[in-house]
Amino acid sequence: MTGSADSSDTVELRLDSPPSKTATLLIKGDRTGSPPKAVPCTYELEPIQKGALESPIVKITFNDKQTMTIACDPLSDNCHADSYPTVGGTSFSMLWHITRADVQSAHTKTRLRQ
C-alpha cells in the first residue's frame, strides 16, 4: 500500500506474507531528500463478513501501541485510514492505495534462479 507523510514523502506499507503478522512502514524520503526510514509494525487482517463484498480491512499496530485501521473499497484499490498516526515524528495521511505485486514478474524471477 502507498500513502504519503506530512512532509509529502511517499510512504509504503509492506505486509509480510501470512502466517507472519509483521509489516514495515517505509518513509521513502523522495520529496524531502531525507534517507529512507523503516518503521516496524504488526498487522491483522479483519475477517470478511458473510455476504459482504470482499473489502480488506487491515489493523496496523506500531511499537508504541498506536493503531491505525485501513479499510479498502471493494470495487477499487483506494483505501481510507481511521486516523492520522504520528510515529517517530512523522504523521501519515488517511488516504492509501493498494499497490499490487507483479505476480508474473515475481514468478519469472523465481524460475530464472533455478
Which tags fit this structure?
mainly beta; eight-stranded antiparallel beta sheet; two-stranded antiparallel ribbon; disordered C terminus
Describe this protein's structure.
This is CUB domain-containing protein. It comes from Paraburkholderia terrae. Residues 1-37 are annotated as: Disordered. Residues 1-10 have a biased composition (Polar residues). The protein has 114 residues and is mainly beta. It has one domain (2-113). 10% of the residues lie in helices and 41% in strands. It contains 1 helix and 10 strands; from the N terminus they run ββββββββββα. The protein has one helix spanning 103-113, and strands at 2-4, 10-15, 22-27, 37-45, 57-62, 67-72, 78-81, 86-87, 90-91, 95-97. Strands 1-2-3-4-5-6-7-10 form an 8-stranded antiparallel sheet, with no helix packed on it. The longest helix has 11 residues, at 103-113. The chain is globular, with a radius of gyration of 15 Å. The two termini are 30 Å apart. Mean pLDDT is 83; it is low at 103-114.
Residue fraction in strands: 35-45%
Strand count: 10
Separation of the first and last Cα atoms: 30 Å
Name the overall outline. Answer: globular
Mean pLDDT: 83
**Number of helical segments?**
1
Order of helices and strands: EEEEEEEEEEH
Adjacency order of strands in the biggest sheet = 1-2-3-4-5-6-7-10
Radius of gyration, CA atoms, in whole angstroms? 15 Å
Helix content: under 10%
Query: Structural class of the secondary elements?
Result: mainly beta
Outline the low-pLDDT stretches: 103-114
- Specify the biggest β-sheet: 8 strands, antiparallel
Domain tally = 1
